[in-house]
Queue: 4 jobs
Job 1
Amino acid sequence: MTTANTPVLHPDLTPAQRDCLDALPLTGSRVVSGPPGSGKSLLAAHRAVHLALTGRPTLLLSRSNLLRQLLNGMLQGLTVPGTPVEAATVHGWVLRHFGYGAPRTQDGWFDWAALTQQAAAALGENEAATPHLVVDEGQDLSPGFYRMARLAAATVTVFADECQRLTETNSTLTEITDALGRSTGRVEIAGNHRNSREIASLAEYFRTGGTRPDIPFRSGTLPVVRHYSGTTDLADDIAGLAARHPRDRIGVIVNSLRTAADLMRRLERAGLAHEPQLYSSAASSGRYRDLDLARPGVVVVHRASAKGLDFDTVVIADAESDSATDPTAAILRMAYYVMITRARQRLVLGWQGSRLPRHLEGLHGWVHMR
């Protein structure tokens, strides 16, 4: 490999992240695990570029379309001319690879067992076109997907964190490794380069299982638990954050699509310096589908699409929507672990109603109550 064909490493890569990439040979399947903020998405983009340099088609896959957009932006800054690499959703790749008649199950998702049989029947037919697959947030896909991918791809590299399993079709690291085969290697990447110490410490309160990650050294402000009298009060607070921090990317994470739409109407009338953005998975194209995640301003996103993203400031807008949920439930704690760890510098957990939601009780010392 000549120097001219070598991608320039991202200037923000740490020595540990570079060591992680060096530990990934260009043959065989690998599972890379790490906590939020360890740089898995960035490493996934680098891994895809490295594999593309072999000349084989390479895809960087995610289940989330919004994460695909983020990964595509990363690839644009890394790819070398002439290397066939692109970001795609798993859904889009399956339709492209198996056709729009790809068999599905009753829940509307793909029939992985049937697709595995198709992949086995086509094994070796067009070796040069068999792609390398790199999967980000791989815990969101079922073992069935990986059994199929093992046959449909030349190699599969999975970046995952089993403490962030929010989908109904998810996998543990062991399940992913077993599905890809006994020869699959495991690599771990440590460190948290995103969150402040205060934000990471609050996230630890909600983490379920896994090895306790190192708490970052960088210090910041305490997260805030804030009561809002209504949606107008919430929108005014978000507008105030945008005015005080005009260069920030502010992620507003909601659990209710109605709240999202109401907030957008109010924010669009608030005269913000940057037009607010809203992501809707129901939109097929246009302003509610294709976002600019790199520019400053407010982005309203449902919690189901927040994984893999990061923002300077995060507002969890409607914590009261979880009031009826058992505060010890793993799915609830995972959801808050994911949402909290999206924040780089500032975090607000907002709620409405007459009583503090039970899962926000007992946080004294980790947060300011307002």
Job 2
Amino acid sequence: MHMANIVLVRIDERLLHGQIRITWGKFSGANTIIVANDDIAANPLLQAPFKGAAGGEYTVLFRSIDQLINSINKADERRRILILCKNPTDVARLVNGGVTFKEVNVGNMHHNSERTQVDKNVSLSPNDIEAFKSIQNNGIESYIQHMPESSKKNIFEYI
């Protein structure tokens, strides 16, 4: 079976912003950024700022989680794909849908009433923890890593 060339999967509530383009895009060698989010995929008005944030260097695509599951393995291998999700639940949906990649890069997950802060940029709810367990059960580890030069720390060190 043809596998897509996924170079990075990142969880970042802000999705596509300048830091992604400058640091993670360059570091990963991506040429295509896929924002995987049901709400944004369904609303072109929400897509414009993300296209702007990517500059002209990347192809930027918007897909719902189900669309991405159904289309990712049709991607040309010349596409080096960086997938951005807002939360681990969406990543777990991708994994359970058969999307294959090495690991999950955990960036920003903001604090809210359901979440407990575990790191300066990462707060987790019980649902988030279940999603990370589901990802791990598929043989994929999730690491908090703020910048490419930062050390990687397995999410389960914090739980």
Job 3
Amino acid sequence: MLLSRRLYPAKAYFSYWLNAVDEQSLHGPFLFKFYNEVLKPKSPSAAFEPIEKLRKALLKDKRLIDLQDPGAGSLVSLSQQRTVASIAKHSLSSQAFCFFLYRLTRFQQPEHSLEIGTSLGISAAYINKASSGQLTTIEGSPAIAAMARETFDRLACQNIKLIEGRAQEALIPFIQTTPKLDLVFIDAHHSEEATLSFFETLRGSLHQQSIVVVGDIHWSAGMDRAWQQLTQHETVTLSVDIFHAGILFFNPDLRKETEVLWC
């Protein structure tokens, strides 16, 4: 079973490789602009050096912590005790994906953002660096949440609120007291049921200009099914598959379609 889960992303990538296109195949002005401003740029900035220096430190951190994982589990270890280095290696968003989140946040300029699945706080630091708006991030493991707080302190992050608790349980009181969300990054649990449940819970907090990023849409067959259902949702217009994530748009001025794009 575990071997099958590990092989699934490789099979999915072959399909992505066959179908992905670049800006040469795009015709709509919005999607062309989005591709060239958010997906195409690759060059890192010196401004990210403190974050990446901390990432390197986490990758060498041998502290052992008790991991409470309420999600779909790890493809690497079934142990509930892991080193910080192991969590950093297998759970953090890659440097390239964090650059994408930064560019996306700059593109969107959100007033209110939400991340579901904080991990050690690296991706949140990138989102925070790109915007002066408020970012709320939710983490289910108390030990990992404590590490994320260390990350935010060491990077002097401002306007980040970390909520500790199981995501679905924490979401309900959060959205009851929060204005509309402009940017959402779903990166927790990685199961079909949880992903669809998060989206349904968030629906009332989204608006026509919101952007929702769903991480690891090809992580498993269940996540693939969840992504397909989300692209067909009545509120979703444009959806973009960049393999490591899916991006959902709700603007009624955009044509309802799904694009598979290189990133």
Job 4
Amino acid sequence: MSTTSIRIDQELVDKAAIMGKALHRTTPKQIEHWAKVGAMMEDNPDLPYEFVKQAIIAKAEKEAGKLEAYNFG
């Protein structure tokens, strides 16, 4: 994956550093996370945040090969 340098407000970087530390992410990864969530929320304005969050978790579990088959009934 390629990277690009951009200028963003220092206040946002500071907040991302705090949140990233609390959630065991680097500052850039925290900003990427916020951007991903924001894009999903804008693309799906009727979905609640918790649903979007669970969709991101489910995708990560799938990519890690950690899904289990669900048996109905």
